[in-house]
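I have been asked to look over a protein record a colleague put together. Alongside the sequence sits a line of tokens, each denoting a local backbone shape. Please read both lines and tell me whether the tokens look consistent with the sequence. Take the sequence as given and treat only the tokens as open to question. I have pasted the whole thing underneath without changing anything:
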Amino acid sequence: MKLLVLPGDGIGPEITDATVIALQAAGERFKVKLDFVHDVVGHASYSLHGTTVRPELLETARQADGLILGPTASMDFHDEGKGEINPSKFFRKGLDLFANIRPSRTYDGLPGKVGKFDLVVVRENTEGFYADRNMEMGNGEILVTPDVAISLRRITRSCCLRIARAACDLAMQRDRRVTAVHKANVLKIGDGMFLDACREVAAEYPEITLDTAIVDAMMAYVVRDPRRFDVIVTTNMFGDILSDLTAELSGSLGLGGSLNAGTSHAMAQAAHGSAPDIAGQDVANPFSLILSAAMLLGWHGRRSGAQSFVAAGAAIEAAVETVIASGDATRDVGGRLGTKATAVALATRINGA
């Protein structure tokens, strides 16, 4: 499996190094060959090449079997004309990574804020209230006058259908329950189309129970009792917000894995930002990117029919559970170790020691 590795900014290099350590341990245990191709994006790329993402990296990603993207300082990048491109958007759009899969679950050894739960948010990734993803040319935001701004949202039936199908396929591997989150009482046309697509697809899966919830009520439901939910599917902006909430409810945003998947390509990406205030201090929690990489192995294994990759990904996830329970993790999740020592402890568990 050829993996393009892009560390990003801030804590990105530290947690990416930790992720490679975990992947190497899983590769050794399950006898799967992992070839790492390292490159740069973000500030490091801008310093070297005058752009945060070189265009040729898209073809490099297409030729790889997966992409690992560390967090980048996207808030620093404002003008694409000057080479300040959001790397996450660049790959999500360029590779058509339409499904952002964001699991959230609690772990023994880390006190939960709302009790134990295990759910997944399936977020549409390529359109919606994102100014850089809903226009063929230009930007989805318009400044009419200095005091009047208009933000456009594109919703298409084809994108709604495919994200609904991704959610249903995932639910068939879990508890066979899907909740479609929307605001169709206000956004009657766009979210109405989304709900219609979810109902249409769910009808093809008679084993699945489909429920719906208005997004503001859903926030209250999740905080009150997240155990009610299994697979949650929603549009881009709602999914972005909801998945951060559910990850934090599990104990830390740093425990939220994130896989951006399309038909032919997938990208593991930490759910959090680049945290420049703690960069270089060996205190960053690497689990979000590690869990994302584990999901990438599983995606590749299922797609290629190579069960050893699925097993390797599952072993990483199980080892994360073990090290959190034992305290061999970073301080933000109740542990006592630094970033690198956490990665080494995790690798030891992956190898069965």
Q: What stands out?
A: The chain has a mean pLDDT of 94.
